[in-house]
Amino acid sequence: MNSVNTLKIPVQITNLQRQLGGQTILQDITTQVRPGDVVGLLGKNGSGKTTLLETLLGFGAPAFGQCQLWGEKSTELAPATKQRIGYVPQRDELPGEMTPKQLFDLYRQLRPEWNDDLLKQLMPEWELSEGKRIRRMSEGQKQKLAIVLAVAHNPDLLVLDEPVASLDPIARRQFFQQLMDYACREHTAIIFSSHIVSDMERIVSRVWCLQNGTLTCDQPLDTLYETVVRVDYSGALTDKAVIGIDQILFSQNSPHGGQLVIKDWNDAKREQLLSLGASQVKASGLSLEDIFLYWHGGTYAN
Ligand SMILES: Nc1ncnc2c1ncn2[C@@H]1O[C@H](COP(=O)(O)OP(=O)(O)OP(=O)(O)O)[C@@H](O)[C@H]1O
Fold it and tell me: Which of 16, 24, 29, 51 most suits a substitution to test ligand 1, by most atoms within 8 Å of the C-beta?
């Protein structure tokens, strides 16, 4: 890739390995995020999501490989490049003794692209008061304020680590609607992690899935829907025969028929099933939540 191209790519991660406390937390991650991409980062507790988001933002150096934002090494970003980023950390890092108004006054000085119009729209929409001390706010109110602060300077890259964990269902819906409007309007690259997969499904264009620090899925959401499917079939397919089919995430077989969940579903796999003795092969789509559950072993999937 030439340097002109990397300048246009908000996030480029190459062969990333990160170690913490002598342990390898992230390994072999190579991926990128382009302008307008909305990436949903999924993974079980402890799979490395926060570590990945913090590393790509330059809060800590990789043991191997690198993260670049618009062609600059994340750990050595120029001040002007930092201004292009909005970040909502997983833990509340707001100064409790300040009010939102005092914070806004401060940020307005520091951030040239500060957007007071957006603030005027978001504060009442989210029922936030400018004069209330932050330490007196509820967790959800603080989370909303952190989101407002992250978007109010019109960033080109927005990174949100569990941004909706404390929000009520109405606020969550509002947040996703606003994020969607924002992404369409500004062509901003967005990466966010969440355990609420059904919400994520409404908005993401791409899915990253981390398993023990490895990116095992990095695909457009549409591709996932098309290629990870539940297959119902009639006929006697033995467990032994099923083992010969690549990328099976789940299987339940009886002498009369059965059900499989398969990755990378395509016509060749359909033919393979037919040649093994299956008939009436019918593939149907899955929700992102079910895809995620099957991807992790399927124990609790429907
Ligand atoms: N400073 C640290 N030193 C050693 N290990 C750490 C440190 N920070 C995190 N880890 C470990 O790294 C792994 C990944 O943690 P991380 O917080 O990135 O996971 P996560 O996917 O964000 O989890 P969750 O969904 O619970 O927020 C965990 O096993 C955690 O214990």
Answer: 51
Phi, psi dihedrals of residue 184, rounded to the nearest 5° = -70, -40
| pLDDT tens, residue by residue, 124-152 | 988 999 999 999 999 999 999 999 999 99
ipTM of the predicted structure? Answer: 0.98
CB 179 within 8 A of CB 190: yes
The answer to whether 152 and 107 are in contact (CB under 8 A) is yes
Query: What pLDDT, on a 0 to 100 scale, did the predictor assign at position 2?
Result: 45
Residues near 290 by beta carbon (within 8 Å), at least 6 away in sequence: 301, 302
Q: What is the rounded (10 degree) CA torsion for 55, 57, 58, 64?
A: 40
Span between the terminal Cα atoms of the chain, in Å: 43
Residue 25 alpha carbon to ligand 1 centre in Å: 7
CA-only gyration radius of the chain, Å = 22
The residue ranges of DSSP E strands in 137-187, in sequence order, are 157-161
Percent of the chain at pLDDT exceeding 70: 95
209: which strand partners? 42, 217
Among 24, 26, 50, say which to mutate for ligand 1: greatest number of ligand atoms within 8 Å of CB: 50
Q: Report the atom number in ligand 1 closest to the C-alpha of 48.
A: 18
On whether the CB atoms of residues 211 and 49 are closer than 8 A, the answer is: no
> Measuring from each residue's beta carbon to the nearest atom of ligand 1, which residues come in under 6 Å?
20-21, 23, 25, 43, 45-51
Give me the residue label for tokens 């908000």.
10
What pLDDT, on a 0 to 100 scale, did the predictor assign at position 298? 65
Phi/psi zone of residue 162: left (φ > 0), alpha (ψ -120 to 50 degrees), beta?
left
Specify whether the CB–CB gap between 95 and 132 falls below 8 A: no
pTM for the model stands at 0.91
3-state DSSP call for residue 118? helix
- Answer whether 192's CB lies under 8 Å from 150's CB: no
